[in-house]
Amino acid sequence: MQRATKRVLLTAVLLALAAASTACLPNPPPVHIVIVIEENHSDTSIMGNPAAPYMNSLAQSGAQFSEYRAVTHPSLPNYLAMFSGSTQGVTSDACPAPGSPYAATNIGGELLAAGKTFVGYSEDLPAVGSTQCSNGGYQRKHNPWSYFSDVPASSNQPFTAFPSDFDQLPTVSYVVPNQQHDMHDGTIAQADTWLQDNLDAYAQWAPSHNSVLIVTWDEDDFVGDNKIATFMTGAHVKPGVYGTNYDHYSLLRTLEELYGTTTHAGAASSATVIDGCWN
After folding, report:
1. Cα(201)–Cα(204) distance, rounded to whole angstroms?
2. To 10 degrees, the CA torsion angle through 266, 38, 160, 166?
3. Domain count along the chain
């Protein structure tokens, strides 16, 4: 009897711990999440850098993740990883990626299957649904949703389609600046100015409209262990610096948990949820 009682108590404790692990996620979840992806810089080149005053102001007013890492190098496999929980075996930036279009589970398809909405907005994308490899400062290697068969062409939009009425945004959207504005070819200062000019209105609107802005990088610049700046601001975000080990799979898993997808994409199934940073 005593042993049975201990088993019951242990089960109760484990269930309580499991519940606590996700208890800090906001409920209801954000109506909108916008994720901006920058390029090829380590966290030490961004955080505290006077060339990036706007980005640092966002990080200081929100939640900054000081131990967030990319998955690999170069760009495309990181974008595929953050979108689908797997690099899909890709090791280069070749366009089109070998084996695409992929039928693998991904956050775009998961959201649509769950009755939510998803759009990726790419600066200089030549047309809605385009699978063109490059155009101006646009590169398809920075557009992972264009590689998956269950993401409709209508979810692959140029940045010019980003709505000025933020109520019209999808549940989750990704924003990819062109290579001049994402630090790939341009400077940190240029990227900082572009972000402020194009996303500050949303950042100011988000806290009072149950919405969140997340800024991350695809990978570092080979100066360390692929640690990249990642921060978020908006509704229910508790300001502070959080030192838990996170990566692109963690962000993917957090989106899945927030919006109740019935599946987990690839490595997101075992990834750490980003929680504890929500009011």
Report:
1. 5
2. 70
3. 1
